[in-house]
Design a protein that fits this description.
Elements: H1 2-10, H2 28-31, H3 47-50, E1 61-78, E2 100-110, E3 115-122, E4 126-130, E5 143-158, E6 163-181, E7 189-210, E8 213-220, E9 223-234, E10 241-249, E11 252-261, E12 264-273, E13 280-285, E14 297-302, E15 308-318, E16 323-332, E17 350-359, E18 365-376, E19 379-384, E20 395-414
Antiparallel strand pairs: 1-2, 1-20, 2-3, 3-5, 4-5, 5-6, 6-7, 7-8, 7-9, 8-11, 9-10, 10-13, 11-12, 12-15, 13-14, 15-16, 16-17, 17-18, 18-20, 19-20
Length: 415
């Protein structure tokens, strides 16, 4: 039942708002702090995702549910496309981003004073760009969509009054769909669709250095997939057939600090993500068709991505026992590089500015509102014809003007 629910939730999420195709919004309480201090904050049951070791700080039982409304924007400006791209329709594709809805759910339970159990049901990766055809770049991308759903049970153990550890298992489903024009006249539209389920793990540790200071560290493993599905070609069905492709979503590691000073809570975070695992996506035919024999390469998408760092700081101000104001700033590096960036994901470095408010309507209920705006650098593209590595036949040359807004609502209930 939990896997079925996870799949349903994943179907609602398809818009990256972090570096690469990661979804950075994993709790409503964290949005207002730009997710600073995630591995040490222990604000609510969402610690089951950020650092299971911190579950030992959540008494009794708690369930938290969040909904994030995302609005990314990707607008293309042509800057001298050449060759076959110059002959394509002059349209700019409109806005490649659209509204998306990302739900998360978390549960923690203190089994005894030393042992805790937790469960995270969330969407760690997702992407959707879709351009209005006909447009200048339709040979390299019309629609690109990645959807995931993750089920992450975990346990935590308090080793002492100052040290806790936690470990968890992830069961993650992924679906991917890519479309583009299959020829210059766009009389054929290619569609690749595939999915798989993968497994990973996570481990965390929490140090209570003093009553007012905590440090948390958390590592989440990479997950390897062999996506299997179909390639279809409208207007050229003889090319249709089965395909597969290997993909590895990256490992990540976070180091966070949380400090209480009077009515203020101060936090910081440094997160590394191993995006260098994404070097290229090679799509292999698994059945023979007019397009080629089983085992032949249908297409190769180069990425050559780099590892990234994300830096964030945040602060909370306790106005009263019922009300807390949140603030946050973050800088999130992009894994993409100028040489291989495409309209499918015109990502660039981004700076988060966030604020939020927490209200306690009762002794056991916590309501959080959060908002963040992402200032994203212009993303340049210089993409050759699919299957080629130079601009001999032409390149799509231009710049994407990008931005994103995030609205979050979360309610946590203890019982």
């Amino acid at each position: 039942m939990a896997l079925a629910v996870a799949a349903a939730l994943g179907g609602m999420a398809s818009s990256a708002v972090a570096g690469g195709f990661a979804i950075g919004t994993q709790s409503g309480s964290g949005t207002g702090n730009a997710f600073a201090g995630g591995a040490a904050a222990a604000d609510d049951a969402s610690v089951a995702w950020f650092n299971p070791a911190a579950m030992t700080l959540i008494p009794g039982k708690q369930v938290a549910g969040a909904l994030h409304v995302l609005k990314p924007s990707f607008k293309y400006e042509d800057q001298g496309s050449s060759g076959v791209f110059a002959a394509q329709p002059a349209g700019t594709g409109g806005d490649g981003g659209d509204w998306a809805y990302v739900p998360n759910a978390f549960f923690t339970m203190a089994i005894n004073p030393k042992l805790s159990f937790g469960l995270a049901l969330n969407v760690p990766f997702g992407l959707k760009t879709e351009y209005e055809a006909p447009w200048r770049g339709q040979l390299v991308g019309i629609k690109s969509e990645i959807k995931t759903a993750n089920l992450n049970p975990s346990v935590a153990y308090r080793l002492s009054d100052t040290v806790s550890i936690g470990v968890g298992l992830s069961v993650q489903q992924i679906e991917a769909e890519l479309t583009n024009c299959g020829n210059a006249a766009c009389t054929v539209v290619a569609n690749l669709s595939a999915d798989d389920i993968g497994y990973g793990g996570n481990v965390g540790i929490l140090f209570q250095l003093s009553p007012s200071t905590r440090i948390g560290a958390h590592y989440r493993s990479a997950i390897k997939y062999t996506l299997e599905g179909t390639a279809t070609f409208s207007g050229a069905a003889v090319l249709d057939g089965g395909v597969n492709a290997d993909l590895e979503v990256p490992a990540s590691a976070s180091l966070s600090i949380f400090e209480t000073v009077g009515n203020w809570e101060l936090m910081g975070d440094l997160t590394w993500t191993g995006w260098s695992s994404v070097q290229q996506l090679t799509v292999i035919r698994t059945t023979t068709s007019a397009g080629g024999p089983a085992g032949s390469t249908l297409t190769t998408l180069p990425f050559k991505w780099d590892d990234t760092l994300r830096y964030s700081v945040g602060a909370n101000y306790k106005m009263s026992p019922q009300t807390k104001l949140r603030f946050g700033l973050a800088f999130d590096e992009t894994p993409t590089i100028d040489e291989t960036r495409t309209p499918r994901l015109p990502d660039q470095d981004r700076t988060w500015a966030a604020l939020g408010v927490q209200f306690r309507p009762s002794k056991t209920g916590i309501l959080d509102f959060g908002y963040a705006h992402e200032f994203i650098k212009d993303a340049k593209v210089n993409v050759p014809v699919p299957g080629q590595t130079t601009c001999v036949a032409g390149c799509l040359t231009g710049t994407f003007k990008n931005k994103a807004d995030i609205f979050s609502l979360q309610y946590a209930q203890s019982f």
